[in-house]
């Protein structure tokens, strides 16, 4: 039976690091300040944003929400982001997803100044992943890596399979693993026989958003399984949060992330650490 990867414990360590960095900045008279840009009213995002707000407050990071109407044009959203880029009192910007259909998320991400891109999703920061730079790495990818590094798996030479190839999660993870000399296969919609890949993976990372996509009989014995998916399902009249991997996979895996309590809390901690680190790249301290 798999050992569970304790996301809350890993998150606490990273939050501790972030807290020390924020305290050092505050002593220098600089208060990190994050603005979350949200478009429209998404009840699912509300809980997430409240959590962000509480986590920031605990560490001494200033947190504000910029709410825009659902009908906002892409041009106006980009103008608003440009305004935040120029405000010296704003050191970090995040754009809450999903955006309405008429706004291209790539265009929105591109508008964030790379120095304030605490989620690491602006093209310049994504590009740095190709050359192995380690700061302002996309939060979820950094979190998945921290979960993997908490196990005894040696990445060098490992057969790794990443399921999901989104620009902000799957692809960055594949690059981080490749950088560490794992042999990486990336699966997606176009993959014809998903099980043939997952069943030979020593490290399986799944980031799709489909509950039950990976059944337990398609996992290699002894694999390390990192389940990034977050899905809300109805069971016995109440809502439950589950990942993309059948929890029964724990019978075959050597290590596995629980959902919830695995990659999720570590991702929030990475956001806080990036928020502290981004400050050093800008005005007051970068000179
Ligand atoms: P996304 O942008 O929707 O990407 C999903 C990816 O899955 C796409 O690359 C898609 O490929 C691929 N895919 C869809 N159906 C597939 C299938 N049947 N087999 C293989 N691949 C398939 O989502 P995301 O932002 O990457 O997030 C993925 C999941 O992680 C979601 O559940 C999200 O809620 C969760 N998430 C969790 C955290 C956390 O902190 N734990 C953070 C971020 C996201 P195509 O583009 O080819 O369709």
Describe the structure.
- With 287 residues, this protein is of the alpha/beta class.
- 39% of the residues lie in helices and 17% in strands.
- It has helices at 7-27, 43-59, 74-86, 105-111, 123-128, 139-149, 170-179, 194-198, 263-279, 283-286; strands at 3-4, 33-39, 62-68, 92-95, 159-163, 183-187, 203-206, 224-227, 231-235, 238-242, 255-256.
- Strands 1-11-8-7-5-6 form a 6-stranded parallel β-sheet. Strands 3-2-4 form a 3-stranded parallel β-sheet, sandwiched between helices.
- Strand 5, helix 7 and strand 6 (183-187) form a beta-alpha-beta unit.
- Helix 1 (7-27) runs parallel beside helix 9, helix 6 crosses helix 7 and helix 6 (139-149) crosses helix 9 (263-279).
- The protein starts with a strand and ends with a helix.
- NADP nicotinamide-adenine-dinucleotide phosphate (NAP) is lined by residues 140, 163-166, 168-170, 187-189, 191, 194, 207-210, 213, 228-231, 263-264, 267.
Query: Radius of gyration over alpha carbons?
Result: 19 Å
What spatial form do the alpha-carbon principal axes imply? globular
| Binned strand content | 15-25%
Model regions low in confidence, pLDDT < 50 over at least 5 residues: none
Main sheet characteristics:
6 strands, parallel
Task: List the strand order in the largest sheet.
Answer: 1-11-8-7-5-6
The N- and C-terminal alpha carbons lie at a distance of 53 Å
Could you say which structural class the secondary elements and strand pairing correspond to? alpha/beta
Number of helical elements: 10
Average pLDDT metric: 95
Q: How many strand elements?
A: 11
Helix content: 25-40%
Query: Any ligands, ions or cofactors bound here, and which?
Result: NADP nicotinamide-adenine-dinucleotide phosphate
Oligomer status: single chain
Order of helices and strands: EHEHEHEHHHEHEHEEEEEHH
């Amino acid at each position: 039976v798999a050992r569970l990867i304790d996301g809350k414990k890993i998150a606490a360590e990273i939050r501790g690091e972030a807290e020390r960095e924020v305290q050092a900045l505050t002593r220098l008279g600089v208060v990190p300040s994050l603005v979350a840009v949200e478009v429209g009213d998404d009840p699912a995002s509300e809980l997430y944003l409240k959590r962000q707000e509480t986590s920031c407050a605990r560490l001494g990071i200033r947190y504000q929400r910029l709410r825009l109407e659902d009908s906002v044009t892409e041009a106006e959203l980009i103008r608003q982001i440009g305004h935040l880029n120029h405000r010296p009192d704003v050191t970090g910007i995040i754009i809450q997803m999903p955006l309405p259909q008429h706004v291209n998320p790539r265009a929105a991400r591109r508008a964030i100044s790379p120095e304030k891109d605490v989620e690491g999703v602006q093209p310049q920061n994504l590009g740095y992943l190709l050359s192995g730079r380690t700061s302002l790495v996309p939060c979820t990818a950094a979190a998945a890596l921290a979960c993997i590094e908490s196990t005894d798996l040696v990445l060098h030479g490992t057969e790794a399979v990443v399921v999901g190839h989104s620009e902000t999660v799957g692809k960055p993870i594949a690059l981080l693993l490749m950088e560490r000399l794992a042999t990486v296969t990336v699966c997606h919609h176009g993959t014809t026989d998903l099980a043939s890949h997952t069943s030979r993976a020593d490290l399986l990372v799944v980031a799709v958003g489909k509950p039950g996509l990976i059944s337990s009989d398609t996992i290699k014995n002894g694999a390390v399984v990192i389940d990034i998916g977050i899905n809300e399902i109805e069971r016995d009249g109440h809502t439950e949060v589950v990942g993309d991997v059948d929890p029964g996979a724990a019978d075959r895996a050597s290590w596995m992330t629980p959902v919830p309590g695995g990659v999720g809390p570590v991702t929030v901690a990475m956001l806080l650490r990036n928020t502290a680190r981004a400050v050093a790249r800008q005005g007051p301290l970068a000179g």
